[in-house]
Amino acid sequence: MEKPTQAFNEDIFLCQKFIDIKNKYKLSTVIETGTYHGVTTKWFSQNFNNVYTVECNQEYYKIANENFNGINNIKSHFGDSPVKLAEFLNEVKEEETIVFLDAHWYTNPVLNELDSIKKSGKKPILAIHDFMVPDRPEFGYDIYPDQNIVYNWEWIKDRIEEIYTEGYIKEYNNEATGAMRGCIFIYPNKK
Questions:
Q1: Which residue range(s) make up the domain with 67?
Q2: Can you point out the beta strands (E) in 63-141?
Q3: Which of 111, 113, 133, 190 is deepest in the core (most CB within 10 A)?
Q4: Are 136 and 172 in contact (CB under 8 A)?
Q5: 3-state class of 186 per DSSP?
Q6: What is the pLDDT of residue 5?
Q7: Chain segment 133-177, per-residue pLDDT in tens
Q8: d(Cα 75, Cα 62) in Å, to the nearest integer?
């Protein structure tokens, strides 16, 4: 069994945050984009009933699936995260689901993933990893200068407002361990 501290790049506070959200909103399902080797995915499988995950790198997909041997509540897929995210959203109940966007190592599908959420018409709880946390410069976040991308609120704001037309609440992690990465959480007002 994976130690909780290995998930989310060894961030015990992010592990606890997901447990708190799960308990508060009675969630049973996680959709994850960006499986990598599946460490966080395995942690999700130990703490949620249903886990959907997608990886676009064939080598990582193979490694992750070897790590999932014997775990029955993970639905692991190879492919393009915005496409698979749309498929996953068709299978789940939004009120029981949190979507964790973390598929941004080689490509930057976040805006396309947000478009998939919008097209689904669902308004799940949303978490985006490697995100800039205001006034917390010690928390890492993704920047791609060649693509003019900074993982910050201004970059996603319009998409979030298109998804959560009835309003939303946003918050950031305020503690971190391990790799010390930022994360933003979006909650639909109905929650």
A1: 4-188
A2: 74-78, 97-101, 125-129
A3: 113
A4: yes
A5: strand
A6: 61
A7: 999 999 999 999 888 999 999 999 999 999 999 999 999 999 999
A8: 14
